[in-house]
Structure formats: C-alpha cells, structure tokens
Amino acid sequence: MSSFLAEFSQSLSFPLDHFQKDACRHIESGEGVLLCAPTGAGKTIVGEFAVALALSQGTKCFYTTPIKALSNQKFHDFQEHYGPETVGLLTGDVTVNPDADIVVMTTEVLRNMIYSQSLRLDRLSHVVMDEIHYLADRSRGPVWEEIILNLPADISIIGLSATVSNSEEFGRWLSEVRGDTAVIVTEHRPVPLNQWMMVGSTLYPLFDPSYDTKPPLNPKLLTAIERREQRSQRRAIIGRPQAIDSLQKRSMLPAIFFIFSRSGCGAALHQCLRSHLTLTTQEEAEEIGRLVDTGVADIPIEDLEVLDFPRWRAALTRGCAAHHAGMLPAFRHIVEELFSRGLLKVVFATETLALGINMPARTVVLERLIKFNGEAHVDLTPGEYTQLTGRAGRRGIDQVGHAVVHWAPTLDPEAVAGLASTRTYPLNSTFTPGYNMTVNLLSTRSYEDSISLIEQSFAQFQAHGSIVGDARSITRLEEQLSGLEHQLDQELEQRRPALGPEDDAANLLVEYMKIRRDLTEAEKDHRRRGVMEREKEVRAVLARLGYGEVIAMPGKKRPVMAVVVKPAQRPQDPRPMVITETGWCGRIKVAEFANPPVAVGQMKLPRGMAQPGRKNTRYVMDNFRRHSYGRPKKLRQRARIKPSSKIIDLRQQLRDHPVHQWPANDREYLARTAARVVETRTEISRRKRRISGATDTLARTFEQITALLTELGYLTIQDGQPVVTEEGQRLAQLHHPADLLIAQCLRSGIWDNLDPAELAGIAALCTFENRQDLSSDTEVPTEALATAMNATESLWSELINSEQRHHLDMTRLLEPGFSTAIHQWTAGAPLDYCLAAAHASGAELSPGDFVRWCRQVVDLLRQIENTSTYEPLQLHARQAIQAIQRGVVTLDP
After folding, report:
1. Tell me, what DSSP letter sits at residue 430?
2. Could you tell me if 588 and 643 lie in one domain?
3. Would you state the pLDDT for residue 59?
4. Which SMART domains does the protein's record reference (predicted)?
5. Beta-carbon count within 10 A of 405 CB
6. Are residues 71 and 173 in the same domain?
C-alpha cells in the first residue's frame, strides 16, 4: 500500500475492503477506474479518495452527480470534512464558491463548462462520475457520453456504477476513448440481505433456509400461499399499520415502503394516521417537532396552510413520513434529515428515493412488483429490484438487511425469486447527436473531426458489437431456411399430381407468397396512411371553424348538426366547443372523428354562448328546429379508403399468377411452409441491411442535423466546411430539449414585446411536460401571451415539418398547462391561486411539482437573458427570474 493510500485509510473509521484498495491503487497510478458495486457497498469512498488525492497533488477534482439532491448532499459532506473555503457547488440554479479545488456539480454543468472552454477546467486532474449508469437514461444519458468524449485526455475519470452485466464492454470502450481504465466489479454487500415474503401478517424466508447455495423456494412459504389461495381473497394483503406492526415485532424497523405512485404514498401515510399508529417516544416526538419547525421557519404561514402542514407534522412526530418528487423540496429534506437521524421509523417512498440519496434502512418493503413507467404498467426489472432493495442494511449499524415483498393472489413467488437472484442489468447507450451538440462540436472541430468523435461514442461501440450478434443470427437463419426449403420440396412432391406440370413449383409458390405478403403490408400501410391523412384533415377542419359556424358531424343513422360556440385555441390540438341540435354541449376532439365534419352554414349567435346554462342550449336547439342549414342526407362515420394503384397492381399480379389457379386446398396447405420461407428470407435481408447501416447511423443523423441547421442559417458552408454563424453561436448557449425552437423564437422576435410575467408563461410553454392531462382548455391571462403562444406554435409546426423532411426526431409537443400558473406566480399571486390556475389549465400539480417547474422555467429564462441580443427582452427575463424566486420556490435544502 502506498504512503498516501495508507494515510487515507488511517483517516477512516473502518478498514477498506479489497475492491476499494484495488480501485484506489489504480487511481493513484494515474489510470481511470470503472467501479461497479451494489448499493451500500462503499463505492463513494473511492470517489472521495480521488478528491483527497487531487488536493494532495495541488490539483482540482470535480465530483459530478445526476441529481441536485445528491449534489447538495455531497457538497455538505465535503464541506464538513475539508472546510467551506475548499468546496464549491454548481447545480445550474445554485452557485457556491465555483473556483474551489473541490467542486460538486450536476453533469450538465460540466458538459456546458467543457463546451464553453471554461477557465475553471485549469488544473483539473480528476472527475468523479457518480451513478455513471445514468448513461442509459433516455433523456439525460447522452450528457455522460459528451463529457467522457470531450474531456482532455490527461484528466482521469472515476466512474461509480451499480452492478451492470456488461461492465467489461463498457470498460473496454472507456479504455478505447480515454486510455487505460481499470474495471473493478464486486458483488459483495458489506451487510448481507435476507429475502422475505409477507403472507398475511406472517413473514416467511423467500428461499429454503436449509440450503447454503442456490436454494429453492421455501416450501413453508408455498404451503402458506396455497392455504391463503383456498380462502377468501378479500384479506390477501393486510393494511400498512398491521404490516408495520409485524416488522416492529421482529426488530426490522426502520423500513422504507416503496409504493410506485405519489397518491399511494399519501394514502399510506393517512392510513397510518387514522390507525393512531405511534412509533416514537415522547422525547423523539418533541425533537422531531423542533427540527420540523426550524426547517419550515422561512415558509409563509399561508403557504403552510396550502401544504396541509399540521397533518404532515403530526405524521412525522409519530414516526411516519412520505417521500416523493411531488413534495416541496424543503419537506423532502426534512424527511431525509429525520430518517438519517433515526427519528423516523417508516417512510413511504416512490422509486426516486433509490437514486443515490443516502437514506438506508434496516428493511425495504415492496408492495407490488409493477410500476407505471409513464406509458404503461410494466414489471420491475432485476436492476430496479436490486436498486430498491439495496437500501436495506445500514453499514456499521445492522448485521443484516431485509427485503420484504408483500404476497398477493396475482404474485408469482418464482418471479420474485428470479428478481432476487439476478444482481445485474445491461447498460445500453442512449447517445444521439442533437442541435446544441452539433453547433458546439463544429465551433471547435472540423466536420470530419466531429464525425470521428461521434463515431467514438459508446452507442457506436455497441452498434459494432451488435453486428457480431446479427452475423450469428444470419448463420442460424440460413440453416433454418435450408431446412424449410427442403420441407417445402417434400410437401410439393406429395401434392404434385394435383398441381399440374409446373417445373419450378417451389420458386413459383414462394414468389406467389411474397406477392401475398407484399399485398398485406401494402394494405396495412395504406390503411395507416389513410387514418393519418383523415386525422390531418379533421385537425385542419376543427382548427379553422369560427364562432357560429354550423357543422354536420358523422352519426350512426344521420348526420348530427352542431354550432361552434367557442373556436379552437391550439391549431396543433384543436378542441372547439359546440352545442348540438339535441342540446349536448362540450368540446369535440380530433380523436372522435374517423371522417371529418362538414361546415354547412352560419348561425347568428349572441355573445357569451360558451358559458354553461340551459338558456344558451335552448337558444341553439330552437334555432336548429327553425332552420335546416343544409343537413347532408348521409355522412359516413368512417370514410372509405380507396385502394392505391400499388394495391390494385398487386391484386392483379396475384390473380394472374399461375399458383392462383392451383386447387385451393393444396395451395393453402403448401402456403404455410412457403410463408415461413418468405419470412425467413426477409429477416435475413433485414439483418444484412442493419449490418451495412449500423456503422454510420449516428454519422447520418449528424449529417441530417447539419443540413437542417445550414438550411435555417445556424451554419454556413465555407470552402466545403460547415461554419457556425452568429445565430449558431447563440444556439450553442441554449441547453434545452427545445433548443432549436427557442433559438428560432428569439431570432424571429416574437417574444420581444412580452412583459416579465408573459415571458415566464412562454418559457413554461416550451419547458413544461404534463404528467396528467385533465383535458381542459382555459383562456390565457393576456392577449399578448395568447398571441405569442400561437406564434410559437406556428414556428413549432414549421420546425417539425423541416425535421420530418430531414428524417430527424421531432421537437416535442408544446404544453400550455403551466403557462397561466407561472404567469400568475410571476405577477405576485399566492401559491394556492397558482395551483388552482394550473388545475384549470389541465395540469394537476403538487407543490413540489410547482417548485420544480418554476426552477426549470428560471433556468430557461437565464439562458434567454444570456442569449438574446434584444436588451428589453434581457431585462424582462431578469425581472421574471427575480419575481419567480420567492416563497417556496427559493427554499433550498
């Protein structure tokens, strides 16, 4: 052991494990390190060694994390150890001592520093990338690869990761692009983990305890489940208070219950409150009360009322809490502080708690093994199960940790055993070039060098690896094809008397089946295109309907007449309000029509007909009774889609083909094998095309982005090379999912005349993503904001059309649900008023959501302030930031 490593080891209160010593030796020798280890194994000690080594050498170390909460935690840890003057923090919205020798930051901040060639990179010798497996995250993962590819080669990267199954592959890539990188993998958990299943209120070991290695399922558990299934299933799962009582009797508290919904966490907490469950002593409750009151001292009293503070405080003093992203950040911090001090005994949490924050427990409880991923309810992966249960077992406190799964009638114990036995999951790159990345690369590199850098990405490395898999599959498929062709020849020989004297029957049959397959695909594609065209037509019709316009809508027996009482406000998702001849009043949507309505006339309407009320409905119904308005005799609910010329031609080829004249029974018997021949040949061709295209997919995307940016004036071609223009330099400073749209808006000046509150509203339009659309459509507060939003949506429509032409992913849909709320907050409205405004606009926001989106709007406003060349807009962005940063928004843990 080197003298410095020995000195570092002596400063710790516990001995280093072998894998930690091994990693530290590689770091001290100047190598990069990829360390993969289970949660709680002690990975961060290796990162802390890199920090200490850099300080001892008189150089700097950056410690990067994927989330601000983890950055804050490491910042405070380093401050306590090294002193405030040595440690800095950069999280985008918080800047503390940025020139320090140790700086904790989010990965996006480091990426931006690299592209801007910041002087703060001077003397940088080490970068610790905590939770480096975030590289697989679809939305933020590419940032990790940008950093790895762009950092100077003399800077050592120390990657700390959960255990992944392809760590060697990832390590080989790191060595290829960064130089020597040691890959260190350990499955060792300092605190062993026991796996349990709770059936009713009884805990059973998941595996048979009489086996030492590869144990089967516990037979006593299976017997208990069998008995339970024979009884009534009403009480299959006991209530949370009873489950907590069972854990308490076994000394298995404190515990984290992972519940995969915010509302579920709140419901669990209220269930405990109603049961009068108390897990704290009088002294603990008083200490909790003091810490809570100190933590909320800066929150206005009126906001505390909105936040249901008294009930939340009561739950904490009784030892229970919830923890999820919808909570106020200050509230989450209080929960984390109380739990780390051992004052809370139970926390009901969503999976966000598993992302690096230091909150271990003695026991982790999973009530379900299914979660909603934003699109659908899906099973937990082995990696997610490992990450969640990794919280169980506190090093230096617990001899063993416990993972408990609630049994339910739909739960298969074998599935749980599979999750518990699998410790790794694959790390797959999500890297792809973007607009901001493209202009930043071309600002410092030639086009060829930029392509070369992109081709060094882990995504490209994995694409080359997939070629090997495809080549193996082709060999297997060709063997399978040979067998099918032999089988087809035998079947043809058996049926030959009925088929006639065809010399090349096998090839003819395969040719015939290929025509049938092509026809089926063409018909599917044509129907799909027809639906898309019809949807486009319906959208256009609904978007241009004006006040008082009478329409005939497709009906089952005859067309239904209606009049527009409130035109659509969003061309991209038009939802005009109508009153029908039968008195129904409501919004009509594109999805409700498989055939567009027809405008047939105009009805004279007084003002205010969109207001609900029997008077307005009766007025419209009487009007329809008195006038016919040219009702069409018939209007199909679903339009007929005429076959294309390609379909007509394929149908004719099918009828004219010799095989079509074969006896139907014989032909269809042979068709099954022939169809498999066609499918196998098609799959072989598809994989061969993928091999030929795998090596240039990212380069082709970069080329398409370059073409679009040149077309829009962000790049220009000089001497055959793309050169970043002045507009492109401004785009390079915009780090946002809608970066190009925002650049287009700033360039066109459509935001120039907005006041600070209106500018905040337009920034929210580009930033907000709605978790739960309540399908509301409320008026925006001012005419200027409405005009700017319409102009922004028009630019968005133009941009996505350009992206489609260049075969690029489209800039995401604009969401207006938060614009009114942030406008009102910026104008000085209270929290409850703004939450109500968001709800009325179709966005159901918790206080924590509100704060998070406010901060993201502030981040974009800062970029607008720094990027815009129009001084009044810069001023209004600055004023909007100052106005937003008040009350709950400014409270940082």
Report:
1. -
2. yes
3. 95
4. DEXDc, DSHCT, HELICc
5. 24
6. yes
Local confidence band at 356 (pLDDT 50, 70, 90 cut-offs):
low
Q: pLDDT digit string (tens) for 291-310?
A: 999 888 888 888 888 888 88
- What mean pLDDT, rounded, does the chain reach? 86
pLDDT digits (tens, 9 = 90+) for 337-351: 898 888 999 999 887
Q: What residues have CB less than 8 Å from 599, skipping those under 6 apart? A: 541, 545, 549, 550, 551
pTM of the model: 0.71
Q: Give the tens place of pLDDT for each residue, 246-279.
A: 999 999 999 999 988 888 888 888 888 888 889 9
**What is the band of 772 on the pLDDT scale with cuts at 50, 70, 90?**
low
Mark whether 485 and 511 lie in a shared domain.
no
Residues 740, 728: Cα–Cα separation, whole Å? 10
Residue 549 parent element (H or E): strand 549-553
Predicted local confidence at residue 693, as pLDDT: 64
Host H or E run for residue 61: strand 60-65
Please choose, from the candidates 269, 34, 314, the residue with its C-alpha nearest in 3D space to the C-alpha of residue 170. Answer: 34
pLDDT, tens only, 398-454: 888 899 998 877 778 888 888 887 666 678 888 889 999 999 999 988 898 888 888
Statement to judge: residues 530 and 609 lie in one domain: yes
Full residue range of the structural domain in which residue 121 is found: 3-185
- H or E element at residue 874: helix 871-884
Are residues 638 and 676 both part of a single domain?
no
Query: For tokens 């092509």, what's the residue?
Result: 518
What is the rounded average pLDDT of the residues 712-721?
92
Same domain, 443 and 532: no
User: 135-177 pLDDT, tens per residue?
Assistant: 888 778 889 999 999 998 899 999 998 777 788 888 888 988 8
Check whether residue 224 and residue 364 sit in a common domain: yes
Burial track 31-57 (b if 16+ CB lie within 10 A, e otherwise): bbbbbbbbbbbbbbbbbbbbbbbbeee
Task: For residue 455, give the amino acid letter.
Answer: E
Over range 323-334, report the average pLDDT: 85
**814, 737 contact by CB (below 8 A):** no
Which of these, 276, 271, 250, 275, lies nearest to 259 by C-alpha position?
Answer: 271
Dist CA 155 CA 56 (whole Å): 16
DSSP assignment of 218-282 equals: -HHHHHHHHHHHHS-STTSS--HHHHHHHHHHTT--SEEEE-SSHHHHHHHHHHHHHTT---S-H
- Cis peptide leading into 192, omega within 30 of 0? no
Q: Cα(890)–Cα(851) distance, rounded to whole angstroms?
A: 9
Terminal CA-to-CA distance of the chain, rounded, Å?
39
Closest CA to 133 of 353, 324, 355: 355
Residue 390 maps to which CATH number? 3.40.50.300
Distant-in-sequence, close-in-space partners of 400: CB < 8 Å, separation ≥ 6: 191, 192, 193, 194, 393
